[in-house]
Amino acid sequence: xxxxxxxxxxxxxxxxxxxxxxxxxxxxxxxxxxxxxxxxxxxxxxxxxxxxxxxxxxxxxxxxxxxxxxxxxxxxxxxxxxxxxxxxxxxxxxxxxxxxxxxxxxxxxxxxxxxxxxxxxxxxxxxxxxxxxxxxxxxxxxxxxxxxxxxxxxxxxxxxxxxxxxxxxxxxxxxxxxxxxxxxxxxxxxxxxxxxxxxxxxxxxxxxxxxxxxxxxxxxxxxxxxxxxxxxxxxxxxxxxxxxxxxxx
Length: 249
Ligand SMILES: Nc1nc2c(ncn2[C@@H]2O[C@H](COP(=O)(O)OP(=O)(O)OP(=O)(O)O)[C@@H](O)[C@H]2O)c(=O)[nH]1
Fold this sequence. Notes:
The protein is α/β, with parallel strands linked by helices. The protein contains seven helices and eight strands, in the order E-E-E-H-E-E-H-E-H-H-E-H-E-H-H. Belongs to the small GTPase superfamily. Rab family.
């Protein structure tokens, strides 16, 4: 698979966007064409529009944020294509997205997942996208202490630019890198607890918890949008239960 990332960085310029794998994934505009109205308005299996090729009932925008190199693009590619982008690291330029439709208890939930550039120089570009995000996955790299130390700064940024009720989850990525690990799982758990954010470790390389992270977010968003009082959903409890079930951690 090509390791080439989107290299346009012309957000709002209506230039065709390239996915991390080099495939076209649609146009980048701030009006997000092809996405259902905000706050999870339910559509009776609406037909595909714009660049989406699958039917869905509800759609949400999810953003991946965190320092450069923590594995945002790799996590997205693992989730979308089930593959790992090995090889030399090429930083994302600007912002890009890919769609995935998930079946959550018979409801087709479409996630439009935005992969942002972690580099400081693109920060003003990504700020513009926070406001429309329904969920944010904030990543750090368990082999990079600085990326963990920066989590607090990312949370401040999120509080400043994102919606107040945005679904948020902290992910400690590269959990496969046992020898290079410098951030313990307990440290991630502690920090997450401190800020009241659900947490889990992931690995884009091995696939550990990647599907689970997106499924948990999709379930939370679906639950919120359906507002079914008979059903309660607690993201962290769901994640813990699923991980125990999988014999993990
Ligand atoms: N061992 C290991 N390496 C990973 C994992 N995820 C990503 N990497 C590697 O980390 C490097 C950076 O990954 P990217 O996904 O490009 O990082 P990013 O967060 O998108 O970086 P920016 O685009 O600069 O924001 C690449 O060399 C990947 O191969 C993982 O789970 N395990």
